[in-house]
Amino acid sequence: MRNTPPRATVFDVAELAGVSIKTVSRVVNSEPNVRATTQERVDRAIAALNYLPSEVARRLAAQRGAKNT
After folding, report:
1. Could you please report the per-residue DSSP string of 4-64?
2. Quick one: pLDDT at residue 4?
3. Which pLDDT belongs to residue 63?
4. CB 55 within 8 A of CB 62
5. DSSP 3-state assignment of 69?
6. Which sequence spans correspond to the domains of the chain?
7. Spatial CB neighbours of 26, under 8 Å, sequence gap ≥ 6
8. Were both Cys, which of 16, 27, 38, 52 would link to 45 (CB 3.0–4.6 Å)?
9. Closest among 18, 6, 8 to 42, alpha carbons compared
10. Which region, left, alpha or beta, applies to residue 6 given φ > 0 means left and ψ of -120 to 50 means alpha?
11. What is the pLDDT of residue 1?
12. pLDDT (tens place) for every residue of the chain, 69 residues total
């Protein structure tokens, strides 16, 4: 079995960037109303941590959103 470091999470990115997880989500999803300086901080944190959003989490969130509409 390989020893791989744990994957960075949205919580790790938020902590490093000094923002909420919702702000990280807004940046990742290219939503409006995020200041350019905040977006840059989040983008730097994402790069520093090699963060990749979880596809499983995205699918679950999309399903949950579809049920609530």
Report:
1. -PPPP-HHHHHHHHTS-HHHHHHHHTT-S---HHHHHHHHHHHHHHT----HHHHHHHHHH
2. 75
3. 78
4. no
5. coil
6. 10-67
7. 33, 34
8. 16
9. 18
10. beta
11. 58
12. 567 778 899 999 999 999 999 999 999 999 999 999 999 999 999 999 999 988 877 777 777 767 766
C-alpha–C-alpha distance, residues 26 and 46, integer Å: 13
Residue 32: how many CA atoms within 13 Å on its side-chain side? 0
Place of tokens 């990115």: 13
Residue with tokens 């679950």: 60
What type of residue is 41? R
Q: How far apart are the first and last CA of the chain?
A: 43
For domain 10-67, the CATH class is mainly alpha
